[in-house]
Amino acid sequence: MRIDLHAHSNASDGTDTPAELVRNAAAAGLDVVALTDHDTTRGHAAAAAALPEGLTLVPGAELSCRLDGISMHLLAYLFDPAEPELLAERELIRDDRVPRARSMVAKLRELGVPVTWEQVARIAGDGSVGRPHIASALVELGVVDTVSEAFGGDWLADGGRVYVPRHETDPFDAIRLVKAAGGVTVFAHPAAVKRGRTVPEAVIAELATAGLDGIEVDHMDHEPATRARLRGLAAELGLLVTGSSDYHGSRKTCVLGEYTTDPEVYGEITRRATGAFPVPGTGGA
């Protein structure tokens, strides 16, 4: 089995529609794909309706968290999307996205960059607007060559010239909320130093004690030595090890199935979950 547990659609900051995402996952030879849009489950129904036969969908989300000033992301799988407390927290995060993005656009204009809110809104479409859409606007304008460059320290990175903080959940609270909703939690790209500051390994140990289920080890932002170190840490802490592409369509260079999760780990994730179930494809539209 080929299992990719981290992919995004245009319900957040990917470029594929949910239906396109699952069709592309099947074309890439995947057996299982997780839809983990940022702080939303809005794409789940469309993805499930379009599932090709032979592909299983894992409903999930990538939750925006912050601890001691450091941004971090928590992958949540197979939780009850209607659980009131977790739903309210996701809505609180999403509601902060638009004013935050508008503030970053204003900062860019103060620096002489001719970006407009209309341009960013057009790029975001129906998705939850965020930094990747602003980054794409900077690429369109020729200010930077790539989205990754836009996330450098000069621009959108934490502490960058146009960075604006927003509401993000304490990760210990996020673990509690996901668990209460019957879900399973995995710390996404925990050592992705290219994205900014990362939490120390002692914090990962504390998160494990608080109920964290796993860490995403095999990821494009982790060098081989980093992956080896994280694999050892996971073994020491009794955490599951996952691998995934973090696919965003054409917005990033990663491809579906670039890294995958061991079938036994996937089986353990589904065993632990009580809030929702994987959706088997029966030949969608």
Overview of the molecule:
There is one protein chain. By secondary structure, this protein is α/β, with parallel strands linked by helices. It is globular. Strands 1, 2, 3, 4, 5, 6, 7 and 8 form an eight-stranded mixed sheet that branches. It is built from eleven helices and eight strands. The protein has helices at 18-27, 44-49, 84-95, 97-110, 117-124, 131-140, 147-150, 171-180, 201-209, 224-237, 263-272, and strands at residues 3-7, 32-35, 56-67, 70-77, 184-187, 214-218, 240-243, 279-280. The model has no long low-confidence stretch (mean pLDDT 94). The protein is 38% helix and 15% strand. The longest helix has 14 residues, at 97-110.
What distance separates the N and C termini? 24 Å
Please tell me what the overall shape is. globular
Major pleated sheet: 8 strands, mixed
Rg over CA atoms: 18 Å
- Tally of DSSP helical segments: 11
User: How large is the share of residues in beta strands?
Assistant: 15-25%
